[in-house]
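A reminder before we start the practical. When you read a complex entry, don't treat the lines as separate problems. The point of joint prediction is that each chain is placed relative to the others, so the output describes one connected object in space. Small molecules and nucleic acid strands, if listed, are placed in the same frame. In the example below there are two entries. Take a minute to note the order of the lines before looking further.
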Amino acid sequence: MGGMKKLINEPGDVVSEALRGMAAAHPDRLRVDLENRIVYRKDAPRPGKVGLISGGGSGHEPMHGGFVGFGMLDAACAGEVFTSPVPDQMMAATKEVDAGAGVLHIVKNYTGDVMNFEMAAELAEDTEVLSVVTNDDVAVQDSLYTAGRRGVGVTVLLEKIVGAAAEEGRSLQEVAELATKVNDNGRSMGMALTSCTVPAAGKPTFDLAENEMEVGIGIHGEPGRQRLPLAPAKDIAAMLVDPVLGDLPYQQGDSVIAFVNGMGGTPLIELYLMFNEVAQLLDRAGITVARSLVGNYITSLEMAGCSVTLLKVDDELVRLWDAPVNTPGLRWGA
Amino acid sequence: MGVENFVDWLRDAARTLHDNAAYLTELDSAIGDADHGANMDRGFAAIVALLDESTFDSVDELMKKAGMTLVSKVGGASGPLYGTFFLRFGTALAGAELTPATIGEAFKAGVGGILARGKPELGDKTMYDAWAPALEAYDAAVSGGSGLKEALEAAAEAAAKGRDATVPLVARKGRASYLGERSAGHQDPGATSTTLLLESAARTLA
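Here is the predicted structure of the whole assembly.
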């Protein structure tokens, strides 16, 4: 196994130096609190608007810092690579973006993220805080006795849609209900062709042979549920789409936002090839692709692979999806 | 017995966790996300920095500050869990004389904090699988007339047994639970760091 080959200076400085880079690259849209590792929308707090905060471990870029801006998040708290941010960060961000209309915490369902956001919500006494926990990963068996399903691709779609609703001036309660609706109607499944290397660890999180793939991965380089021989894209697409379709379940006549996401190390040409396979499977199932998203939006460092997310939509969700957004990671109409 | 013993404990724990950081991370990469060693090392290094720049008059003040430092610096699930342990441990010792019994009460309060925050059950393959038998062994030793040192040694031994017993378990909490059956056959990193902390306590607190 070779050494770690990354564009870094010191492993311990990766997150703070990347945040400096975001601040330098997007001074028109963002301001970055380097001490607390929080990316803020430049004009936050917006009077009368519900504040939207998310956060999580770093290494998933552009999520979450890249989704801060008009029509999406007001603040994103960055943890160490693949490690939840700490309550101090969420408390500082909550206080900063609260314009009197309350704050929604968007939390991916990982034990650490949930605990740290919970502590922050308990400690942020002066602000009304509601939370939504995303848990759309069908690879994880849901059960009372486990940590439950992971929050993955749906988080991106949720931040966009809920961001548009908050921009319209909806109340905290309404925004939180919409967030729950999005999470309830979305499902995802991911796979990896390669592992990834956390800079502080210096070696890959798991080993995959040249002819193997890992199906059912999350976004932290944690191994998945099944290791299988590498297969053609059309077979992989079915392995991802079938469990997603069967889970909600999505039915003939449904409209969806179809999202093929890259894990960070897979080129767009392969993601479009995958989208072609996914679109054919959906067509065969009688499901209409109302909108689509293809690209690297919720990643695992340099991992190669992809995930498929379907979000069942109605006219309201499509309208909010189409609303203008202007963030470093997602921009249209503004 | 006084605040200096607890300072020794924290410094010794920091050294031990630093020396075992690569080992903890290796355990975590098998069933988690390969950050436990680095996170614990960072958190306890911050405690050492705190000890270097401040003095503490009481154990409760020291432990509460240590707990807040872990909550602020560790992240993940370990930050809130270990942070809550030290916060509750410290709070329970406020104004108390330091005896095997009062330290046992603080120990119990700390483990209660972990239970409240993480809602683990015995056998979930978590740090609680080391904490629970350790607390039980400590209490039994103190009830049987043992001194602090023997009680802490009994606790550390029970924690090590609990840690070893996590190997065949299928994880039901934390990131390892996403692996389902494949989490079996691996030692839990949290139960391992808990055992290191308790072994350090047995070396330094009495």
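Discuss with your neighbour: The mean pLDDT of chain A is 94. What might explain this?
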